[in-house]
Amino acid sequence: MLEETRTNQLEKERALLIGIYGGDTLREQAEEYIDELEMLALTAGAQTVDKVLQNRMHPDPASYIGKGKLRELKMLVDELGIDVLIFDDDLSPTQIRNVEKETQSKVLDRSGLILDIFASRAKTSAAKTQVELAQLQYLLPRLTRFWTHLSRQKGGIGTKGPGETQIETDRRLIGRRIAVLKEKLEKLDRQRTTQRKGRKEMTRAALVGYTNAGKSTLMNTLTETEVLAENRLFATLDSTVRRLELDSHNVLLSDTVGFIRKLPHNLIESFKSTLDEVREADILLHVVDATAPSVEEYIEVVDQTLKELGTEGKKKLLIFNKIDALPPEDLSRMKRVWPEALFVSAERGIGLSKLKDRVEELIEEDYIDFEFKIPLTHYKIASHLHDIAVVEDESFEDDEVIIQGTIARKDRKKLEEMLKRVNGISTDESRQSSGN
Ligand SMILES: Nc1nc2c(ncn2[C@@H]2O[C@H](COP(=O)(O)OP(=O)(O)OP(=O)(O)O)[C@@H](O)[C@H]2O)c(=O)[nH]1
Ligand SMILES: [Mg+2]
Questions:
Q1: Which of 14, 73, 345, 422 could form a disulfide with 350 if both were Cys (CB 3.0 to 4.6 A apart)?
Q2: Which of 226, 233, 347, 348 to mutate to test ligand 1, by most ligand atoms within 8 A of the CB atom?
Q3: Domains of the chain, with CATH numbers?
Q4: Treating both helix axes as pointing N-terminal to C-terminal, what angle do 379-388 and 409-433 enclose, rounded to 10 degrees?
């Protein structure tokens, strides 16, 4: 059961959900989409009173659903005491206006709803700024509707909305606010980059996946921490980074915001800096809720979103979670379909050692042998090496320490260059001291 939010609200808004099927979308699919929309509505604090599905190839450009259906909708609104109509697709400003006019009810589309949830969830300054930016960008083209709304609230029946000048003024104000927010985000971005510099050399893995897949739970179990994990959509909005100690490697593991179908594009845009954790990761751990009704589609949505973020070519592990709640026959079937995938239960701690082994294998693919001779005068380099490499042997000789082991290819190159400089200096020093 999905927990309800905003319980302080005296009366829950009564929502009617509307979707269409036909064309590429089968009825069962549309039903599932609308169930997801119900979850979203509940997360936002609304109570779903009824759902309406219409069979039509394409949305009506004027009102999304057909004229006749719209009249039916109006009757339902009155009969059931509906406060808000929520559409499963994004509506154009014209569609919103027409439906509002015909039904005399508040109209929200999927993006508007998702943005509303993000807004109520955002806690940190970065998340708040990102959400506000996305909301304003969403609002800008829809401005007329909000003003029509406002004038109606003032009581003017059939008023045409404010004059163009008022809307223009408002557009300018929003435009200015957007600029301020963008600047603020850039500043936050610079701070994050500085913070990140220190951990550049460690292997980084990011948990990604559909919302509610169990990313945060997996993060908690693997790193023995306590980030918020709950049965609601978008529990996580900010990335959290924790150290994960494996047998021979240390990894920085980050937990990130979940994805969903039809995630508003400007939301992805404005969350790009939060999603930097994903873009900069060496390994992506794609967590999938194995008990979800349409696993394949969830995987596809996540892959598409990852593509949008420009993360192709990264190493990826597909991890099916919640296998404790999966009927055994489904588990066997999935193992056949995805022989490469891992099957775990984050909550029960099943399959985690195999998961850790696989992560180590992936890291090791890029690991190569090294042997470095480091002057004791630069022992700092040796301790740094202990942090970033797997040290297998260490011996002391005269004024040098000889260290052997395996290291990431990119780090070996860096250290070689560093040592070249250091050895250059010490050779010079020794030449000078021997009087040559
Ligand atoms: N049965 C079962 N439930 C699990 C398992 N792992 C997580 N869950 C439940 O799934 C729900 C979502 O878990 P989270 O870890 O918050 O999911 P998330 O992917 O971080 O979700 P968002 O942050 O909202 O994107 C919670 O109610 C968890 O208790 C598991 O292994 N088995
Ligand atoms: Mg989470």
A1: 345
A2: 347
A3: 13-113 (3.40.50.11060), 122-197 (no CATH), 201-364 (3.40.50.300), 367-430 (3.30.70)
A4: 170
